[in-house]
Amino acid sequence: MAGPAYDDRDGLIWMDGHMVPWRDARLHLLTHALHYASSVFEGERAYEGEIFRLTEHTERLHFSAGQMGFEIPWSVAGIDDACRAVLAANDIIDGYVRPIAWRGSEMMGVSAQQNTIHLAIAAWPWPSYFSPEARNAGIRLRTSEWRRPPPESAPVHAKAAGLYMICTLSKHKAEREGFHDALMLDTRGQVCEATGANIFLHIDGALHTPLPDCFLDGITRRTVIDLARARGIEIVERAMFPDELGDAREVFLTGTAAEVTPVGAIDGHKYKVGALTHQLMDDYEALVRGRAPA
Length: 294
Hints:
By secondary structure, this protein is α+β, with helices and mostly antiparallel strands.
């Protein structure tokens, strides 16, 4: 994402109930979240000045905090209002919104029951997660060596910062090798998702997507499932294995940042950016901007 460093920008960030200048929104070195990943966050998009599915995102933020063993001291309605205030304060019409909650610095160690829970919300313009050229041709993925942890090993349904470490490792390796992103499997060898987006495969006239039993059931994922069903497209949620990747005619990713992004290749498999993918891209764009589908 080109532009100035994220700690050196003009604007305002909502932090623990107050708007502060962007460059002053700082933490102490011994913040628990920095050392032990005790933080949760959301990624939201604003279109035409409105944050899409805002309350669903905020409810998930509260859920994620509960999974991490802490309670955010602001209500869902209060956080919704703060997100809107950040958009207005920074004069953002189309952009990205990042709420994040974390344990502070009162205790330093694995135990942190007495630490203050903080909340901050930032927003900035962000046109597209992948370049327009990559989206038009379909992005290229490689399968990662890192595996998604099983539910008994991590709070897999929380949007928790620590769960993204393997995503960063996987995406960096993919980019070094000339790919755009990585495909994540789970410990059973089943297809899960990309590093920050869910995956759909068009097979035999239906849309197949992995069961979200060890990764996030994304808000965009659920939205696109509803859009597909409205078009009469069959949705099949099931366990999927890598040897089925060659059966797909079209593949795409869904996510708040990725929106609906076509996939042109996974490892040695190639796919066309076909009519179904284009239809759902158009339907999603119409929905988030409050227009009737074509």
